[in-house]
Amino acid sequence: MGSNESETSVAKTYPVSGAGLGLRRKLLKPLRANPPESVDFLEAAPENWLRVGGNLGKQFRYFTERYPFVTHGLSLSLGSPAPLDEDFLVELKGFLDTHEIKFYTEHLSYCSDDGHLYDLMPIPFTPEAVTYVAGRIRRTQEILERRIGVENVSYYAAPGQEMSELEFLNAILEEADCDLLLDINNIYVNSINHRYDAMEYLQGVPKQRVVYFHVAGHHVEAEDLRVDTHGDAICDPVWDLLGRAYQHFGPVPTLLERDFNIPPLPELLKEINHIKALQPGTSSHKGIVNG
Description:
Elements: E1 19-22, H1 28-33, E2 41-44, H2 54-64, E3 69-72, H3 86-98, E4 103-107, E5 110-112, E6 116-121, H4 127-144, E7 149-151, H5 165-176, E8 179-183, H6 184-193, H7 198-203, E9 210-215, E10 219-222, E11 225-227, H8 236-249, E12 254-256, H9 265-278
Parallel strand pairs: 1-2, 1-12, 2-3, 3-4, 4-7, 7-8, 8-9, 9-12
Antiparallel strand pairs: 5-6, 10-11
């Protein structure tokens, strides 16, 4: 599939629908005490829950039995020079199957070599890197026995760049034959930091690859520098870009990310409700699937 598919008239089927929230341990009690009708699905990082048992494991199971779930990986390190961690992928497959996870995504970056780097490092935008990373994605899909999505990431340097960010992303999607988790905030952040048109980027992404959106807040370091923190409220320009993304792509399911400075749940629900107000053809409905 290629970028020409952005003009397809075939209806897109998504793994989830509506507006979702990233599940953080701080939110377990308030979400269970007062399940919000506006939250349609949840997202978790599998690394945070894979080997968790006891009371926390039971709490996680409580939510996976009641909400549609997607997962967003932290450590697969698709662009790493180190060998792909196939033992981890076998364990991950069992986790996804056990909890009936609707979809799995990972960052289009790398975070390890001989050890973990504790940050998401940019993959060089080169044809050689496309071939290398696409092969690792295909192998990941083989082991997991399912398609995955990769996320466009924020980056602050582009070492050895031979292709644009968008050209690199589309080449990966094409060669790996995988899907895309489109992060709206990252597009905005990168458009400021690297001086490109965010809407042109959106319009260059193949519609049929998109499985859901991420939206989050960021920190304004300077007029020409934004830092992707997931620790602030979503700003007006990102809300505007999200609305324009819905106009272009339709009612794509959208996940609110908040990793730091997490406010009380009612504050997060205000942003969830803003997402739902912007989504075309959607209305607030309870995300719980049973129980």
